[in-house]
Design goal:
- The protein starts with 28 loop residues before the first strand and ends in an 8-residue tail after the last helix.
- 38% of the residues lie in helices and 23% in strands.
- Among the domains are: 134 residues, Beta-Lactamase (2-Layer Sandwich); 175 residues, Histidine kinase-like ATPase, C-terminal domain (Heat Shock Protein 90), CATH 3.30.565; 120 residues, 3-Layer(aba) Sandwich (Rossmann fold).
- The strands form nine sheets. Strands 1-11-3-2-6-5-4 form a seven-stranded antiparallel sheet. A six-stranded antiparallel sheet has the order 9-8-7-13-12-10.
- The longest helix is centred in the middle third of the chain and has 64 residues.
- By secondary structure, the chain is α+β, with helices and mostly antiparallel strands.
Length: 859
Amino acid sequence: MNTPQALLKPGEDVDLTSCDREPIHILGNVQDFGCLIAMSSDWIVAHASVNCGDVINRPASEMIGKPVSAVFEEETVHFLRSRLQVLSYQEGAARVFGFDLLGDGRLFDISLHQMGRFFIFEFEPVVAGGSSSTASEDAASVQALLARLKRHDQTDKMLNEAARSMRALTGMDRVMVYKFAEDGSGEVVAEALASGQEPYLGLRYPASDIPKQARALYEKSVLRIIGDIDAPVHAIHPEFGADGEPLDLSMAVTRAVSPIHLEYLRNMGVQASMSVSILRKGKLWGLFACHHRTPINISYQRRSAVELFVQLFNYELAQKETETELADLEKSRLVHDRLMSQISSGRTLHDVFETVADDIADIIAFDGIAIYSEGTYRSVGSAPTEEEFLGLARFLNTAETSSVVAMDELSARYPPAADYLDRAAGLLAIPISRRPRDYLVLFRREVARSVRWAGNPEKPVEVGPNGIRLTPRKSFDAWREVVHGKSAPWRKAEMKAADALRVTLLEVVLKLADETNATRQRAQEQQELLIAELNHRVRNILNLIQGLMNQGRGDAVTIDDYCRVLDDRIRSMARAHDQLTQTEWGWVPFERLVKTETEAFISSKNARVTFEGDAVALSPNGFTTMALVVHELMTNSAKYGALSDGSGGVQLSVRANADGSANIIWAESGGPAVQAPTRKGFGTTIIERSIPFELKGTAKVNYRMTGLEAEFWLPSTHVREVEEEELVVQTTAETEVANARTLKGEALAAEDNMIISMDVVDILEELGASRVHAAPSVRDALRILENETISFAVLDVNLGTETSIAIAEKCKELSIPFILATGYSGTGGVLDEFPKAKVIQKPYSLADVRAVLPEEACT
C-alpha cells in the first residue's frame, strides 16, 4: 500500500532559500511532461531542458544568463510580462491555457509563480489525445459534482461522494481520501475504485510515512502529479548559484519526486499518481490520493478544475464540521438547561448523577463516569473504586486550577493507575469546584486497539538500494498493532465539550451553594419564628395554668378535690397538645378535636359547647391548623367570652357543601357584652389568617355585642364526611381502667428531674409499692437493679444526656416488668428496641400509671 505523497531527500526541494540575480543551480530534476525556466528580472538564470528544449532548439548553455527576449518573440515576452503583473494581485501561480508560445501553432499550458526575487515559468505542451477540456466544461463539471456533495448531511457520506467526484474528474483508477489523526498517523476514510482494485479503505499509516517537511510542502503546494513513474527526468542547469544555494522549487508543478517514492509506487503496481491537499483553516486536514495503473496525462486545465473542486470541497467540509461542532454545542446547551432545571427542583448533583451521565454520553464517549463532590464518591460503569480514586484525586489536584485534564495513558503519568488498568486506562477530569477540588471524571478502558497499518510502523528505517532511508515496504498486507496501556485519545472537540460542561457544572455548583445559603437563611428565619411562637405558646399555657388554678378554687371543697380537678385539667390539656404533634395521623373528626380542647380548658363547662350539622373529618394539615384556631377561640371564650361566666355557651354549626368543601360557624351567646379588641394579638392573627394562609380557605370574624361569631370555609382538599363510629371520643385514663390495681414489692423510679422523681415515688408508693428507689442516672439505676430486689420500674426515656436503653435491657434480662415515660410523641430507639413496652406521656398521674400496670407486677 502506498503512502499518498512524495518522499523527499533530506533538504530536497523544501523551503530552499531564494538566490539573487546571478545564475544559480537548481537542486532537483524536472519531470518529462514540462519545461522550467527561472528568471530574475529579464534574465534567464536557470533552465531545465525537457520537451520544449528541443522545441526552443537551444542548449541550456546558450540560454543561461541571456535576456528572455533572446529566446521568445517580443509579443510573447509582452504577454508573459503582463501575466507577471497579475501575480501581485493573487496568491499561488498564474495560469495560461493553450498559448502559442513559439508562434508556430503549437499550444502550451503555462504556470508562472514567484519565489523570492525569482520568477519561475513552467510550460506544458498540450498533447493531442490527452485529457484536455475547455474552461466551460470544467466549470460545469465542478458545479455538478459540488451539487452532489451538498446532498449529503453526514460527513462520512460526503467524503465518499468526494472520492467518487475526484475519480470522475481525473479518470484515475483509485481515489482515496486520506485523513490525518492528531498523533500524525493517517487513515483512508473514503475510497473510489475501478474494478479489480484492492480496497485500502480503513488502512492506517504511521506518522513517519509523511514527514513534517512534506506536510509543510503540502500546505504550500496543494497539487502534486506524477504522469509516468518511468519517464525520464531532466536536470536543472547550472547546479549552484553564486552563493552556493539552490533554487526553491516548492511551488513548481513539474518538480520531480524522490526515486524512493517512485520505487514505492512500482511496488504497488502504480504508474501514475496525483495528490491534492485538503486544508482546514489553513492546516493540512488530509489528502486526495489518486493512483493509476498506466501512465496518464491530465492537462493543466483539468488539474486547475481539480484544484477548484478541492477548494470548494474544503469549504463544504469546513461547513459540515462547523455544523457538527454547532450540533455538539447545542447538545451541550441542552445538557446545561436540563441540569439547571433538575437542580431547580431541589436535587443535588449526586441526585441527578445518572441523568447527567446519560446526557454526557451523547456528547463524549466513555466507559465509566464518576463524581466526587463534598467528600462523597459515586461511579457508574468502568471506574476505579473510591479508595483508588482518592489517591487519583490528590494527583489531579496538582494540575492547573480550573482546567480540564485529559490523559490517554494514565499509568504513564500516575503509576498507581496500573493496578486498575483494565478499568481506567485514560481519563478526562472536569473540576467542578475550587480547592480542595471536586471532580466529574470520565474514564476509558484500555483499547486493545487493533489498528490496520499499511506496514509495520515500528520499522520505518532500513538499508535499501538508495541507502539508509525510508524504503518502500515489499508487503502491503495490513499489520495489526495492539496498543497496551492506552485508551482511545480524547479529541479536541471532546475537550471543548468537556470545558463547556465544566462551566455548566460550576454554574450548577454555585446555584446549589446559593440555594443552600437561601435554605439556611429560611431555616434561620423559621427557627426564629418557631422560637417566638413557642415563647408565645409557653406563656399562654402558663397563663392558662394560672387561670385554671384560680378558677379551681371555687369548685373545690377540700384541698384534695382542688388538686384532683387541677390535675385532670392539666392532663387533658396535655392530650390536646399531644394531638398537634401526631403528624402521622390520617383524617381526624373535627368534633373530636373540639371536645379534646373543651375537656382541656373548661371540663366543667363542656356541656355548654354544642354541635349541630354534618360530621366532618379533617386532613392532617387541616387538623393541625384548626387545632390552633379552636385553641385560640376556646381560650378567648374562657377568658373573655361566653364561657367566662356561668350563663353563656358556644354553638358550633358544620355544613358539608355539595362541592366537598365545608363551612364551620362558631357562635357565642349568653355571655358578657363583647367589644372588638383595640389591638390584634397573636391569637387573633391565628384565628383570622391561619385558614386562608395554610388551607387556602376563608375566615370571617364578627365582634357582635351579643357574642363573638366566626365563620370559616374549608376547601374540599382538607375536609370530608365521616362515619358515625369515627365520632367516638377517647375517654380519660381513669375511665379506661375497670378495676383498681396495686403494686407488690419494691419499685425503681429512673428520672433525672428531681420534682418529677418525687412525684413518681409518691405515685408508686400510693399504688402499693413497699419501697421505691429513685435513680437520676443510668449508673445509679443499674447499681440498684444489681443490689436490690425490684418488682417493677418506671423508666424515663431520656436521663439527661443518656437514654434508659441499658436499664431496660437489664430489666428484660432480670424479667422485671417496666413502663417507659417520655415527654416526646415518640420514643425513638428505645421503642424500636422494645416494641412491646408500655409508654406513658408526660405529664402523667397515678391513674395513667395504673392504666398500664402489667399484671405480673400487681397483687
